[in-house]
Structures are given as C-alpha cells and as structure tokens.
Amino acid sequence: MNEVQSRLLKMYVDIKRSLDGHGIRFYGGFGTALGTVRHDGFIPWDDDIDLIVWEEDLPRVAQALKADLDPGLYYYHEPACDDHPHVICMAGGEESVRDRTALFIDIFPLKPYPDGAFRKAVENAAIQGDNVAIHVLDRIRSDSIHRMLSWTHRFFYKLADMAAGPGCDKVTVRSTTFKDFIFPREFFGEPAPHVFEDEEMPLPREWDRILTSTYGDYMTPPPEGRRKGAAGFPCCAYRDYLSDKKKKGV
Predict the structure, then answer these.
(1) Which of 210, 216, 229, 233 is the most buried (most CB within 10 A)?
(2) Which of 34, 93, 25 is nearest to 64 (CA)?
(3) Which CATH architecture has domain 3-111+186-248?
(4) Which residues, other chains included, contact 48 with Cβ-Cβ below 8 Å and sequence gap of 6+?
(5) What kind and span of H or E run contains 244?
(6) Residues with Cβ < 8 Å from 30, sequence gap 6 or more?
C-alpha cells in the first residue's frame, strides 16, 4: 500500500466499525470490489474506495456515521446537488475541501431500476440529465446563479424516482456509468466477506457475475497505459460544507 491507500484504509475501518455496529449492510463496489477479488485489497494504482448501501438504509447510514465518526476528522457530506453522499477526511482542514485535495470515500445507494421500455427510456434520460445538471452546478461559482439553477438536479432526481416506481426487480447505482451496473436485486443479498489488505470487505453475493458483467475478464489487469486511479471530487462539496457550518452556527 502507498500512503494514500493507507489513509483510505484507516477511513474505511472507521466507517466499517460504525456500519457493522448498527447492523447496516454494505458492499464494496466497482474498483474496490475488483481489487478485493484480484489483489486481496487495493488495485495497486487505485486511489479511492467505493461502498454501496441500500437506498432505504441511507437515513440510518447518515445517523450512524454522524454519531460515530469524529467530526474533527471527518465530514459526512449529504450533497444538495449530487446523487450520493461521501465521507470526507478533514485531516487537511477546510482548505483541503476547498482545494479538492481531501481524501474521501463514496457511499453509493442502490436505487430501483424499472422494467418496460417506456419507463426505462424515462429513467435513462432522467439519470443522464441529472449527471449533466450535477456537473454543471459543480462548475458554477456564483451562489445566486447556483441557487437559481439547483432545481435542475432535484427535477431529474425525482423524475428518475418516479420512472422507477415501486416493486422494481432490478437496481442500479446512479452515476455516469449506470447502464453498466444494472442487476437483479437478488445479486446483492447477504454480504460475502473477502480479505481486503489486513481487513475484511463485504461483497455482493453474486460478486463474480457482477464483476464479469462490468469488467469482462476482470482477473486480467489492463495494459500499463490504461492503469489509472479515480478522478474527480464530490460535486459542490465545499459549498455544502460552508452551508452546513452556517446551519450549525460555526
């Protein structure tokens, strides 16, 4: 492990302790799941951790992490203009959030995905529209313009919820690559524990089918020229951080 991965692992241990303590199911997802299976830990060139929870557990996740994580070390980011929360490390102070250098762990909710051609078309358009809205809002520096346009995220997010509706047999994670991550609900089920560095990472029950569908021959590493870590930073995190500070009167 490099230094960044070591610090992320410490964050993960604190998050895992909290979620386990409250009986909240979660899974390693995306590159984290791939690294768990292929490397028994981090992908050597990776620099993030992705966790997945059930949408209905999000209120309990927020309550648990806000109660258990040291607020001097962590900021639980419930975004006003993003599709999932994050745990952001505050070791570098407020400036690290402003400068987008803080380490963070994504917490993606599993959301319903509909059957039927019409509902799928609406769902796909809504998620894609929301992705555009989120990234546009993240680039707006004017608070007044940001407030004026923030309805776009709420509109597309709610439209996607309406298109999915109740009783869906499939789930997805709303992201730019959501079409590659649509699976039957039963693929997740009871978490399957795997070694992750010197800790344990729970994976979806059907982790092999998920990884095969997402990555193909996932046990074969990509060519060196295509080996790169994650990019990006939680959208509008600094604006949300300042807003949360103001609400707390800090």
Answers:
(1) 210
(2) 25
(3) 2-Layer Sandwich (3.30)
(4) 8, 31, 32, 104, 105, 106, 229, 230
(5) helix 237-248
(6) 50, 181, 214
d(C-alpha 150, C-alpha 65), whole Å? 26
Residue environment code for 77-88, b if the CB has 16+ CB neighbours within 10 A, otherwise e = bebbbbbbbbbb
Residue ranges in 40-167 assigned as alpha helix (H): 58-68, 94-98, 117-138, 143-149, 151-164
The answer to whether residues 236 and 85 touch, using CB atoms and an 8 Å cutoff, is: no
Q: Is 104 helix (H, G, I), strand (E, B) or coil?
A: strand
Residue 237 structure tokens: 């995190």
- Which residues is 171 bridged to in the sheet? 112, 183
Q: How far apart are CA 123 and CA 64, in angstroms?
A: 31
Would the pLDDT of 246 be above 80? yes
Tell me the helices (H) and strands (E) count for the chain, helix number first: 9, 9
Is pLDDT of 250 > 80?
no
Share of the chain above pLDDT 70, in %: 100
